[in-house]
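Q: I'm writing up a methods section and want to include an example of the input and output format. Could you take the sequence below and give the corresponding predicted structure tokens, formatted cleanly so I can copy it straight into the document?
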Amino acid sequence: MEPEPFNLPIDELVSIENFYQSYSENSFSLLPDSPSNFNPERLLQIESEITQLLDFDIAIASLPEAQDSMEVLETGLIKVLETGVMEVDPLSDIIFQGQEEANEEDSLGEEHSLLRVIQEELMEESSLTDLLLMGAEAVESQNWPVVSAIISKLNENLFNQENGNNPFNRLALFFTQGLHWKSIISPLEMPPRTFSRGPNTISAIQMIQELSPYIKFAHFTANQAILEATLADRDVHVIDFDIMEGIQWPPLMVDLAIRDDASLWITAIVTDPETEASIRQTGRRLKEFADSIDLRFTFDQLPIQEEEDFRTIHQVGHTVIANCMINQLHMPSKSLSMVRTFLGGMTTLSPKIVVLVEEELLNFAKASSSLSFVEFFCEALHHYMALSDSLVMGSSFTGGYEMCLKVIEQEVLGNRILDSVRQFPCEELERKLWRDGLCLKGFRPVPLSSSNVAQAKYLVSVFSGEYRVQYEKFRLALCWKSRPLTTASIWAPISRAV
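A: Here is the clean output for your methods example:
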């Protein structure tokens, strides 16, 4: 049976009028601890329509152009698998430098040569997983000649067509590149990587939204927490750490518009000057949508370099909420210094609540633990394989749909693997800065409502596969089987009752 062709859902753009009519016909208000008022079908409808409404970067392209783009991407992916030449990002030019470095080490003394022979014999008998973990151990011990030799062996195995083309091998390639990065430069010296939001990346994110509850879980849980925290408030001011295309906010805007004379003010944090123009466009689109539903709405953006920059935010008469999503699949990785600056700024502002959504692999708990780099690397292998498995098993990828998974790997998972491996600290100085940076001083975790938990449970029930929700110790986690993928929590100032 021939597989069905995959067509990107970009040939239609929902108009503002039709979008608003859909909201008007299905609107409802969520009250805390009142699951009977909960209409989850509407949330899914809203999310789907918002994706089409605000995804202008894709919608302005014609369908044939998008298909041409997919064909180009497919050709590139096949080239990677056949030739071993990666084009994930500008880092790819140095992915195989480890092999050249290993060759230079051949001039070592005779005793080192004997050691190399023993190491090579061990590597010949090792699986890919063993080689990756051996590489992590060598990085942690700073044994750079061994790291180079292992990277060379991994490259050889991964580009050997006899080993097959499967998701684990493809992800192992990104882990290999991550080890190489870790071996050449300290995370404290490493500049942040640029994050491209081209058509292929946006297409990959659209696929994730269709195949997994991952992104919807983050948006719905955060918005529900904000609605509940501001039930008695008329004017709400959200400080958003990374607004991206802003698709999180229209559902919240619709619910606030139901309230008498409510208003929403969003301040988008700018950490990279190159994103200012796109953030301004996001603000314009949100303003147009707010006007269409008669919601008083203000949008501004704040470039930040240090905590003092937050003191310029006007708070009088508004309930301040902080929205912080860190290391999510659909978002660019932020440097540790930027996360530290934002969290420090929130301490200065003392918002009513901070909504925090974290990738489970790099959450606050792991940052403050004594986890070694090798232990973290092993966790990362399991984490990203679980993510890949959830997309494959949860969506019944077969035949032509295998290419969808490859697009997601190339455009999203690969970047997240590289950023995760390169960010996790090895040395004590790095560990101290990591622990000091990832904390909310003066804040305490508060429980999520039963409505929020019920909403998350319904969300995962409409996706196939073994997704489930786990709630314990004030943390709501989206899991694949028994492994948490991303977690949400709410924090309030210790001196303030929510």
